[in-house]
């Protein structure tokens, strides 16, 4: 018998798998991601890659010196597993995908040469960038191969060529590939040190294509996070329309999950400097954050709540959050529901709001904050979260109804989700 990972089942398949033992042939018990690496056909690909990355060059079993580190998947085993998945799809088993061949360094160099060739045809250059974009999207390994061939420098030169003119499809494709890579500090300085380049990125935040807007926001976030100079950070944050463009990304429907992910990363990076937070509030960041907060994934929820706490530390942000009817109930509900960090940020935001407003205190009490805080101080959450909870309990001591502590029903209805 075998326990199939939950990701391989649909909603119905999961229920059936819980109650129906699924026999698996012995020859399928080897992991689906096994691959040949010269003399080791029974090792996971990820294990081989990490082993090679640490500088090992000798097979630990045969002691043979390895010269070719090209990983060849065990196609026969994969096909057997796929056939078995298809035969058992009535149990909700999903067919495992066929892995794609890693990018060839020679092909990557050719594509980069085609993309950067000033004498090449325009359509050929665009096609080369699209091919690079597809490779970079496929896997981390491909992105490593592309980055190792001086790709970022090539992409920067293409993306920011003729920034004073109307942007072209070639610029957009180069920016799309560039948005998938981390930039070095010197590369971030290349972008941030020229106001024309910063203005060009901000202009793209209002492009008609959502992909162009999101890619521009991704590069802005990378640049802001990658430079140490406060003056250059201020130059980006002071660019006309940058906060409005970033906040506007939140307005896209959920069919664009990447827009939410990139949007909150960029907004958080810009709000790390206190002097810039007022602009975020003026651009409508408060309404966008509260309206979208229930829709973020876990790591994005943590970043969104951290941004909420940062904005609550300035008077205008605190007032804007207080005026939104859903702010306090939503923050109370989040405590102990997502993660330790999310709880810490939610408690910190509530502490700032309740310290500034008696109305927020009353709203928090009405939303059941006492139960949440008492559970929080007894949980295994972070010490910072517990300190904030204790401070909030002291602050709300006079706001809590006298008879409420005697009502045990408040505690019975609490839903604590472990994380």
From TrEMBL:
Q: Which domain of life is it from?
A: Eukaryota
Q: Does the keyword Membrane apply?
A: no
**GO molecular function of the protein, one example?**
ubiquitin protein ligase activity
Does Transferase show up as a keyword for this record? yes
The record's section on Pfam families has: ARM_PUB, U-box
Q: Which reaction does it catalyse?
A: S-ubiquitinyl-[E2 ubiquitin-conjugating enzyme]-L-cysteine + [acceptor protein]-L-lysine = [E2 ubiquitin-conjugating enzyme]-L-cysteine + N(6)-ubiquitinyl-[acceptor protein]-L-lysine
**Enzyme Commission number(s):** 2.3.2.27
Top-level class of the enzyme under EC nomenclature: transferase
Gene3D superfamilies, A to Z: Leucine-rich Repeat Variant, Zinc/RING finger domain, C3HC4 (zinc finger)
Query: Which terms are listed as keywords in the entry?
Result: Transferase, Ubl conjugation pathway
Residue ranges of domain U-box in the record: 45-91
Q: Which SUPFAM superfamilies match?
A: ARM repeat (SSF48371), RING/U-box (SSF57850)
Task: Please name the pathway.
Answer: Protein modification; protein ubiquitination
Instruction: Set out the biological process GO terms recorded for this chain's protein.
Output: protein ubiquitination
Q: Which PANTHER family match?
A: U-BOX DOMAIN-CONTAINING PROTEIN 26 (PTHR22849:SF112), WDSAM1 PROTEIN (PTHR22849)
Q: What does this protein do?
A: Functions as an E3 ubiquitin ligase.
Protein name stated in the entry: U-box domain-containing protein
């Amino acid at each position: 018998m075998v326990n199939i990972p939950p990701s391989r089942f649909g909603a119905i398949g999961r229920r059936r798998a819980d109650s129906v033992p699924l026999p698996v042939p012995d020859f399928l018990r080897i992991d689906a991601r096994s691959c040949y690496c010269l003399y080791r056909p029974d090792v996971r690909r990820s294990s081989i890659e990490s082993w090679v990355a640490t500088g090992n060059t000798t097979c630990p079993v045969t002691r043979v010196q390895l010269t070719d580190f090209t990983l060849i998947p065990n196609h026969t085993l994969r096909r057997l597993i796929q056939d078995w998945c298809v035969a058992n799809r009535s149990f909700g088993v999903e067919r495992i995908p066929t892995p794609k061949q890693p990018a060839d360094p020679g092909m990557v160099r050719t594509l980069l040469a085609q993309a950067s060739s000033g004498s090449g045809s325009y359509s050929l250059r665009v096609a080369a960038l699209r091919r690079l974009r597809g490779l970079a999207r496929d896997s981390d390994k491909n992105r490593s191969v592309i980055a190792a061939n001086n790709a970022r420098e090539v992409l920067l030169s293409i993306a920011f060529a003729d920034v004073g003119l109307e942007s072209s499809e070639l610029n957009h494709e180069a920016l799309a590939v560039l948005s998938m890579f981390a930039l070095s500090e010197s590369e971030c300085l290349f972008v941030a040190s020229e106001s024309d380049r910063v203005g060009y990125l901000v202009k793209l935040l209002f492009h008609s294509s959502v992909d162009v807007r999101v890619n521009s926001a991704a590069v802005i976030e990378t640049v802001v996070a990658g430079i140490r100079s406060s003056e250059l950070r201020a130059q980006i944050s002071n660019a006309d329309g940058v906060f409005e463009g970033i906040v506007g990304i939140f307005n896209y429907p959920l069919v664009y999950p990447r827009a939410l992910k990139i949007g909150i990363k960029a907004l958080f990076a810009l709000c790390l400097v206190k002097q810039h937070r007022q602009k975020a509030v003026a651009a409508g960041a408060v309404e966008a954050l509260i309206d979208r907060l229930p829709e973020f994934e876990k790591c994005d929820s943590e970043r969104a709540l951290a941004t909420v706490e940062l904005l609550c530390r300035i008077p205008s942000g605190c007032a804007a959050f207080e005026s939104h009817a859903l702010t306090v109930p939503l923050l109370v509900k989040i405590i102990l529901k997502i993660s330790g960090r999310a709880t810490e940020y939610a408690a910190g935001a509530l502490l700032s709001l309740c310290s500034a407003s008696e109305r927020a205190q009353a709203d928090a009490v009405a939303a059941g904050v006492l139960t949440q805080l008492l559970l929080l101080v007894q949980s295994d959450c972070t010490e910072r979260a517990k300190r904030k909870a204790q401070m909030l309990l002291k602050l709300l001591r006079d706001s809590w109804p006298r008879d409420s502590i005697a009502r045990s029903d408040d505690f019975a209805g609490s839903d604590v989700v472990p994380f």
